Amino acid sequence: MILEILEWCLTPASLRARTSGLLGEQIAIRHRALRCRSAWEGHLQASKAFLSRNLPQGRHVAVLGSGHLHDVDLEYLIERFQRVTLVDIAHPVDVRIRALCSGNKVKLFSGDLSGALHMENPDSPIVFERPLAHLLRSVDTLLSSCVLTQLALPLLKRWDGHFTDPEIALCASRIRQSHLSMLRSCPCGLLITDTARRYGQEAWAPLLADLDFPMAVEGWTWDIAPRNEHGLRDRGSEQRLVEAFVFRSQP
Ligand SMILES: C[S@@+](CC[C@H](N)C(=O)[O-])C[C@H]1O[C@@H](n2cnc3c(N)ncnc32)[C@H](O)[C@@H]1O
Hints:
Elements: H1 2-10, H2 15-19, H3 22-35, H4 37-54, E1 58-64, H5 74-80, E2 81-88, H6 93-100, E3 106-110, H7 130-138, E4 141-145, H8 153-159, H9 165-184, E5 188-199, E6 205-206, E7 218-225, E8 238-248
Parallel strand pairs: 1-2, 1-4, 2-3, 4-5
Antiparallel strand pairs: 5-6, 5-8, 7-8
Helix pairs in contact: 1-3
The structure holds S-adenosylmethionine.
């Protein structure tokens, strides 16, 4: 815990990244990944293998929600693209160093991918900052890995008790829809996302029933929190169903 607080203080990040709780979550993910290294191995390998089978060669790829790059092989992207832009609300120090050492091939973009962190209420419009909108228009490949189900979480926490559940759910769905539209409007969009969750041997609960997906290209389970992982108390282990999709817009 002390290490996490220290990292929170030392990681360069905007006020929004800090107050939304996203920086704290990003740091917590790194520590969980270390604790659950062997349980996560299959998921991380499956993600990288999907990308190596489906990523085209191109000019410019943006990785949405790049975080610690656990599930993306940065060297592989550097080989296949002239330019790689990592997009996240904050970038960990080790990722900053890798970008600095990339000979200008890897750029970092810090900003809100949900277009919603500024919202005062669930009816507010989704607005992407202009530099982000510009970046999204300039890439030929977009890659979104394990961020889709995270996008609405800061608002769910902030608005709990202030608005009705249906109002919040509708807004969360708009945020997810706009992320999918982003991927669909790029010449090539690759999406890896958790689509269902279960605790112990309970039935799978869908996480994205509001969205229309094409047929998944691949799917696997992710032991996101094995038994004894803290935070689960008496719920046993937690698994996610992960699915991977490819979107190609018509020329
Ligand atoms: C579950 S993590 C996955 C990260 C990455 N794929 C990895 O392997 O470390 C989700 C990432 O999305 C980022 N993220 C979540 N919501 C965001 C938002 N609204 N804007 C920008 N980044 C966001 C988080 O900071 C985090 O790094």
